[in-house]
Write a structure and sequence with these properties.
The complex is a heterotrimer of chains A (218), B (296) and C (241). Chain A is mainly α and 218 residues long. In chain A, 81% of the residues lie in helices and 0% in strands. Chain B is built from 11 helices and 12 strands. In chain B, the strands form 3 sheets. Chain B has a 6-stranded mixed β-sheet, with helices on both faces. Chain B has a 4-stranded antiparallel β-sheet with strand order 2-1-4-5. In chain B, strands 6-7 form a two-stranded antiparallel ribbon. In chain B, a hairpin with a 2-residue loop joins β4 and β5. The longest helix of chain B is centred in the C-terminal third of the chain and has 17 residues. Chain C is mainly alpha-helical. Chain C has a single domain, classed as MetI-like (MetI-like fold). Chain C is 74% helix and 0% strand. The termini of chain C are far apart. The chains are: A mainly alpha (218), B alpha/beta (296), C mainly alpha (241). Chains in contact: A-B, A-C. Chains A and C meet through α2, α3, α4, α6 and α7 of A and α2, α3, α6, α7 and α8 of C.
Chain lengths: 218, 296, 241
């Protein structure tokens, strides 16, 4: 039963691979935008009054402690029952972004908590308004601390994009499966995709380590 | 950054006047219009504490405290740590609220406002309006590390007072010259020594044209050799303007030099007050004598 | 959704999910300790190989690895794995890589003086590791292992894709047979949440026990999802500076 590695199948798969890669990167880009912005909203809400903070804690804990896969099914199959029908790309990006916003929230929270209390007091002593204090003083300092950790979550999201193939998006893994079903060559496309993830993720994580060292101080 | 210029060296050891060269503006000039001039009527009660009590849990930090500070006066609070001195500054900054009693600044209530003849807890807008009269310099400087020196000084005048950007920058330059740091305008706070940072913090507080300047142990986080530069700047401001100062310090010689009045605190109460001469040379209270001999 | 569907699919699915979580967690724990301690080895070749393992599996996508073990592995080695075990193996190797970072980091945090004391008492390196370093590092590992266990639980839902009849698979079967998706997926989310909650509870007990073992008081609260152990991976700390 031992079948040989077939390089022709690899070359044959490549056009499908590139199409898949583009969709993977699209889902990742939208997911990142959502995760970064929504996570910030959660983190600021956590500093608000209890009637805002507690529901936010409840919702984010629930999202973080349940599988992204089921959340994707929920967005793709359940949401259209009451709301708009979402394409696989849209549902996938929302699911990815929503799920990871609960992680970026913690990153922002740590970054915001890491700004010394003296900064709030100084802003207060200068009569700055609360929104202006956030914008000019707290967030610029918090962001700096969060860049490496946020970068790590982008890599984590990249590795979760294949889940979107389960609701029909033909991203990299989806392309590999489709190619396998058509040609009965599973081994080559799946290996190519697996290597592709490592090839993208490894330099990215090296880059983040460099950034981390650079941004450690002002 | 790399100019091998002598003026780029940290100049904390000397008086800022030495390093800034000639043509330095006087403090009164740098503060510019709107700052309290010498002509202003003195003797009015600018800050008034009435029966103020503050507790932290079981611990009563201020106990039914009454005192006032007149316009243009320089008052120094001394006393053992935990005696409530810093609490007074934090109350004035509305960082905390009194449990009982009222505080007025320039005739307006702090943390309270009058509604239909009754005193009710004030909203944030009211507090901010009253607080604009007060500037504060912190023990740990608390400069904004994400802003260069100049923007640290212009940020609040532009966004809080609504001052024109160019005007704010010009005034800020004057103030930064006053504290002897003109050559460091374009640096980030972390590129400066502690003493230089504290001088920027003083300029930042003055840029808001406060009527009162609160100084919270402004030299205690500094290396000993950097203290003189900061105190010289403050002494200059104290002598050449009539900005009101409330100062918590362990630098007794500085307190003696600039104060009109010294208040000795112990366990949330003022146990003795008087001129620096009286307090430092001939205190009436045994606790005061004990405290002074312990800090010398 | 009828009781029949619940009894025939959800309950067995729940049991499969629990099994998959337990098996892959145990296997991942072994991988974590083996790779994690090898990464502190004094021999560069050992460090290099274990580091390469870490980088490869940290960079790989869990779902792709699962597929690879289900479809590519049998073709390449002529050895067909039962789907459940293909899934468990893939998850254990992937999450074990994250776990090795926890082990390596905690071992690195044991004070150097402890190592020197062990050398002074003529322990062998293996004895030092077992009797001195790991017991001291263990309490520090428990909270991040808790987060990792929850990530692993969520990760087990992926094995439904290679036709293992776990909870997620049961959900899809019920959606297809009843044409109703809202009740079943809501139920699934709640069930997974309860499983995650039980893991956190259990790990809290382990943590208390571990801390008592080195005479420390347990921390009041350890938030989940904090920092670096998630598939987020990353040798870097959440929050930084």
């Amino acid at each position: 039963m031992n079948s040989k590695w077939n390089w022709d199948a690899v070359w044959d798969f490549m056009p499908f691979f590139w199409d898949g890669l583009i969709l993977t990167l699209q889902a990742l880009a939208w997911g990142t935008v959502l995760a970064f912005s929504l996570g910030l909203v959660w983190a600021i809400a956590l500093r608000g009054p209890r009637w805002i903070a507690w529901p936010v804690i409840g919702v984010t804990e629930f999202i973080r402690n349940t599988p992204l896969l089921i959340q994707l099914f929920f967005l793709f199959y359940v949401v259209p029952e009451w709301g708009p029908t979402l394409s696989a790309l849209v549902a996938g990006s929302i699911g990815l972004g929503l799920h990871y916003s609960t992680y970026t929230m913690e990153v922002y929270r740590a970054g915001i908590d890491g700004v010394p209390v003296g900064q709030w007091e100084a802003a207060r002593a200068l009569s700055m308004s609360t929104p202006h204090t956030w914008k000019a003083v707290i967030l610029p300092q918090a962001f700096r601390r969060t860049v490496p950790a946020l970068g790590n979550y982008v890599i984590a999201m990249l590795k979760e994009t294949p889940l979107i193939s389960t609701i029909g998006l033909v991203e990299m893994l989806g392309a590999a499966r489709a190619y396998g079903v058509q040609t009965f060559n599973f081994m080559e496309p799946i290996t190519v995709v697996g290597v592709a993830f490592i090839v993208i993720a490894y330099p990215a994580s090296l880059l983040i380590r460099v950034l981390e060292r650079r941004l450690a101080t002002y | 950054m790399n100019t091998p210029n002598e003026s780029n060296q940290p100049s904390d050891t000397g008086s800022p006047a030495d390093s800034a060269g000639t043509g330095r503006p006087s403090a009164a000039e740098a503060l510019g219009g709107g700052a309290p001039g010498k002509s202003r009527a003195e003797g009015r009660e600018l800050i008034k504490f009435q029966d103020v009590t503050k507790r932290f849990g079981e611990n009563t930090v201020l106990d039914d405290l009454c005192f006032s500070v007149d316009t243009g006066k320089h008052v120094t609070l001394i006393g053992p740590s935990g005696s409530g001195k810093t609490t007074i500054l934090r109350l004035l900054m509305t960082l905390i609220k009194p449990d009982e009693g009222t505080i007025t600044v320039d005739g307006e209530y702090l943390t309270h406002e009058e509604k239909n003849g009754k005193l009710v807890p004030a909203g944030d807008a009211h507090n901010r309006a009253v607080r604009k009269k007060i500037g504060m310099v912190f023990q740990q400087f608390n400069l904004f590390p994400n802003m260069k020196v100049l923007r640290n000084v212009t940020e609040a005048p532009v966004h809080v007072l609504g001052m024109d950007k160019d005007e704010a920058a010009e005034r800020a330059r004057g103030l930064i010259e006053l504290v002897g740091l003109t050559e460091h305008l374009d640096k980030y706070p972390t590129q400066l020594s502690g003493g230089q940072q504290q001088r920027v913090a003083i300029a930042r507080a003055l840029a808001m044209r406060p009527q009162v300047l609160l100084l919270d142990e402004v030299t205690s986080a500094l290396d000993p050799e950097l203290v003189a530069g900061v105190l010289d700047v403050l002494r200059d401001i104290a002598h050449s303007t009539d900005i009101t100062m409330v100062c918590v310090t362990h630098e007794m010689s500085f307190a003696r030099d600039i104060s009109d009045r010294v208040l000795m605190f112990d366990q949330g109460k003022i146990i003795e007050s008087g001129s620096p001469d009286k307090i430092f040379n001939d205190p009436d209270n045994d606790r005061t004598r004990e405290f002074l001999s312990s800090v010398h | 959704m009828s009781w029949g569907l619940f009894e025939n699919w959800i309950l067995p699915g729940l049991w499969v999910t629990v099994q998959a979580t337990v098996f892959s967690a145990l296997l991942a724990l072994v991988v974590s300790f083996v790779v994690g301690t090898l990464r502190t080895s004094r021999l560069w070749i050992v460090r290099f190989l274990s580091g390469a393992y870490f980088e490869i599996f940290r960079g790989a996508s869990a779902l792709v690895v699962i597929f690879w073990f289900a479809y590519a592995f049998p073709l390449l080695f002529g050895w067909q794995l039962v789907p459940l075990w293909a899934g468990v193996l893939a998850l254990a190797l992937t999450y074990g890589a994250y776990g090795s970072e926890i082990v390596r980091g905690s071992l690195a945090a044991v004070p150097e003086a402890q190592r020197e004391a062990g050398i002074a008492l003529s322990f062998t390196p293996m004895q030092r590791l077992r009797r001195i370093e790991i017991p001291q590092a263990w309490p520090e590992m428990v909270p991040p292992f808790n987060n990792l266990a929850i990530e692993l639980l969520k990760g087990t839902s992926l094995i439904s894709v290679i036709a293992v009849a776990d909870l997620a698979f049961a959900g899809n079967v019920i959606r297809l047979s009843t044409n109703e998706s809202a009740p079943v997926y809501t139920l699934l989310l709640v069930l997974y949440f309860l499983l995650a909650f039980s893991i956190t509870r259990g790990m809290r007990v382990v943590e208390r026990h571990a801390k008592r073992g080195v005479g420390k008081l347990p921390e009041k609260k350890s938030r989940s999802g904090q920092g670096d152990v998630a598939p987020a991976g990353g040798s870097t700390n959440g929050g930084g500076a």
